[in-house]
């Protein structure tokens, strides 16, 4: 297996990252701006900076087809950046929220995006042609606390959201005139706006950090602060789910997760490395880390001439340099995203974290 | 006093900072009962927990420490009153004290590998923290008789005193259990203790 591609961009936390469809542009949320990096050979070079927010940018997402970038920030605003020959032009979106915007994602159809916020609402934003303006509609009930994360169903109508009230929920974000009427499925038949299609809580109920639909959209996984992941298999409208499987791990909590096919989940978080889960409706299991520990070329390999040992003892008072973690990321991983894949299977995925690194992994 | 001065003193006072604006907002998060967020807990009566305590003590006398521990952790009285919880915590700590240090890890490993073993160790971890909290909150009240100055200075200083000798031995038992549980169930177990709304 080829080793992961590591790009150390800066010594500063990365709140979120997103690649363009051709993988030549990388958008990174850093402090109050979004930095755009262009690929040059094997590395990334800063080529543009999107300045428009005046508080920390919490999330960024590039639409794969249109190339539009949406960002949101603790200043309670979201901006849509339209690409143009002279650079990106921002448009302010009226979110009508009185707390920070925490998370934003384009729907797969790219006609809408969802913004989670600390105001206990999710703003579903869409473009109104006649007013030439992005407008938002709120999903309010029954959210009881800050929305930390959202994820879209492949049909662009259903939206999963995780919250600090320890629930993962599935809502309908159907907007007349924007969306085609969705096919009835396992999540329900009639889906007017703000329908609650599912509300899930696991036993030890931590804050939900990440949610994700399986590639088919028929299962939902979420990761919570109790170091668990939970997979839900729904069973149609108003029925209890077919199966709710919770895997408690011995690890620190996961911050982000993606599906690789219908029977594999990759999750990463406070342990600074990615882990693989495998299973199905019958049960799920943690199968191990995606990193091979003690990789050559990192510390251990320089094992150790006597001269070097005494030199280290003289300089640092110890022989082993233990200031480096054995993982590629040197701090919490915030976001993992699919980098390359087809038909629901992931070939490569990218991760970003508090250490300012972007790493592209082979799944 | 001129009007201007009055206005300034009024606006300079920071009374407005103490206004709880959440009370004025009907949709505020402080205006709902957080217990509605999760399914209700099964109530546990005083009698039930006494019988369970008896059974567990019987197992202990019979030398089956592992069975006693397992029985004590299987159904923690999450829905019981404070008195019930206190009673069960005493039982659990009694069981913990009865197990030898060399036995701890093998027992924990066996419990962890069974079905629902991870849940049981989460419950054990909750009792360990409860036990530590109880013995450290006792010590300031006792120490006040001895030396009024040391208020909540921490149990570490109290440890050596003869008056709290038994307490410090409980603490050392709890600490060594804590270490062993983390070895077996990982740091995730500590995290779950903190996030869980089902308190022991």
Automatic annotation (TrEMBL), chain A:
The keyword Nucleotide-binding does not apply. It is found in: Cytoplasm, Cytoskeleton, Actin patch. WD repeats lie at residues 50-82. Keywords: Actin-binding, Cytoplasm, Cytoskeleton, Repeat, WD repeat. One of its GO terms (cellular component) is actin cortical patch. Gene3D superfamilies: YVTN repeat-like/Quinoprotein amine dehydrogenase. GO terms for molecular function: actin filament binding. Its main location: cytoplasm. GO terms for biological process: Arp2/3 complex-mediated actin nucleation. PROSITE patterns: WD_REPEATS_2 (PS50082), WD_REPEATS_REGION (PS50294). Functions as component of the Arp2/3 complex which is involved in regulation of actin polymerization and together with an activating nucleation-promoting factor (NPF) mediates the formation of branched actin networks. PANTHER family: ACTIN-RELATED PROTEIN 2/3 COMPLEX SUBUNIT 1, ACTIN-RELATED PROTEIN 2_3 COMPLEX SUBUNIT. Belongs to the WD repeat ARPC1 family. This is Actin-related protein 2/3 complex subunit. It comes from Venustampulla echinocandica.
UniProtKB/TrEMBL annotation, chain B:
The keyword Cytoplasm applies. Keywords: Cytoplasm, Cytoskeleton. It is found in: Cytoplasm, Cytoskeleton. GO terms for cellular component: Arp2/3 protein complex. Coiled coil: none annotated. GO terms for biological process: Arp2/3 complex-mediated actin nucleation; regulation of actin filament polymerization. Residues 136-150 have a biased composition (Low complexity). Transmembrane segments: none annotated. Residues 136-163 are annotated as: Disordered. Belongs to the ARPC5 family. PANTHER family: ARP2/3 COMPLEX 16 KD SUBUNIT P16-ARC (PTHR12644). Functions as component of the Arp2/3 complex which is involved in regulation of actin polymerization and together with an activating nucleation-promoting factor (NPF) mediates the formation of branched actin networks. Arp2/3 complex plays a critical role in the control of cell morphogenesis via the modulation of cell polarity development. This is Actin-related protein 2/3 complex subunit 5. It comes from Venustampulla echinocandica.
């Amino acid at each position: 297996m080829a080793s992961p591609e590591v790009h150390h961009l800066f010594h500063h936390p990365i709140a979120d990252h997103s690649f363009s469809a051709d993988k030549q542009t990388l958008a990174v949320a850093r402090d109050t701006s979004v930095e755009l990096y262009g690929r040059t050979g094997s590395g990334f070079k800063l080529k543009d900076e999107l300045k428009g927010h005046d508080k920390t940018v919490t999330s960024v997402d590039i639409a794969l087809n249109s190339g539009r970038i949406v960002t949101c920030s603790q200043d309670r605003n979201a901006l849509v950046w339209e690409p143009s020959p002279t650079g990106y032009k921002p448009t302010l979106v009226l979110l009508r929220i009185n707390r920070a915007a925490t998370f934003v994602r384009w729907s797969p159809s790219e006609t809408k995006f969802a913004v989670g916020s600390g105001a206990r609402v999710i703003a579903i934003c869409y473009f109104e042609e006649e007013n030439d303006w992005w407008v938002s509609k709120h999903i309010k009930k029954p959210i009881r606390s800050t929305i930390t994360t959202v994820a879209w169903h492949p049909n662009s109508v259903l939206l999963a959201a995780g919250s600090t009230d320890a629930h993962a929920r599935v809502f309908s974000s159907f907007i007349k005139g924007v969306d085609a009427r969705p096919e009835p499925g396992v999540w329900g038949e009639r889906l007017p706006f703000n329908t609650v299609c599912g509300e899930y809580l696991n036993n030890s109920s931590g804050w939900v950090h990440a949610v994700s639909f399986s590639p088919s959209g028929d299962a939902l996984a979420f990761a919570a602060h109790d170091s668990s992941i939970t997979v839900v298999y729904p069973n149609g409208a108003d029925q209890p789910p077919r199966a709710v499987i919770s895997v408690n791990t011995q690890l620190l909590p996961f911050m982000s997760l993606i599906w690789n096919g219908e029977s594999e989940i990759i999750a990463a978080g406070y342990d600074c490395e990615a882990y693989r889960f495998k299973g199905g409706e019958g049960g799920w299991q943690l199968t191990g880390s995606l990193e091979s520990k003690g990789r050559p070329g990192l510390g251990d390999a320089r094992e150790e001439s006597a001269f070097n040992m005494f030199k280290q003892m003289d300089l640092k008072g110890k022989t082993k340099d233990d200031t480096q973690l054995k993982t590629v990321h040197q701090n919490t991983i915030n976001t993992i995203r699919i980098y390359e894949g087809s038909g629901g299977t992931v070939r490569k995925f990218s991760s970003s974290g508090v250490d300012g690194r972007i790493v592209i992994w082979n799944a | 006093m001129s009007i201007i001065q009055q206005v300034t003193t009024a606006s300079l006072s920071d009374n407005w900072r103490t206004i709880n604006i959440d009370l004025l907002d009907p949709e505020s998060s402080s205006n709902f009962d957080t217990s509605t967020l999760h399914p209700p807990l099964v109530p546990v009566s005083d009698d039930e927990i006494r019988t369970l305590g008896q059974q567990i003590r019987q197992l202990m006398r019979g030398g089956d420490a592992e069975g006693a521990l397992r029985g004590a952790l299987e159904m923690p009285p999450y829905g019981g009153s404070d008195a019930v919880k206190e009673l069960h915590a005493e039982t659990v700590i009694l069981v913990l004290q009865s197990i030898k240090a060399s036995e701890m890890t093998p027992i924990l490993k066996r419990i962890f590998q069974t079905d629902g073993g991870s849940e049981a160790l989460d419950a054990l971890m909750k009792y360990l923290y409860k036990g530590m909290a109880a013995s450290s909150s006792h010590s300031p009240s006792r120490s006040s008789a001895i030396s009024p100055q040391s208020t909540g200075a921490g149990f570490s200083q109290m440890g050596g005193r003869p008056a709290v000798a038994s307490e410090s031995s409980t603490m050392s038992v709890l600490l060594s259990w804590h270490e062993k549980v983390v070895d077996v169930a990982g740091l995730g177990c500590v995290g779950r203790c903190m996030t869980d709304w089902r308190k022991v």
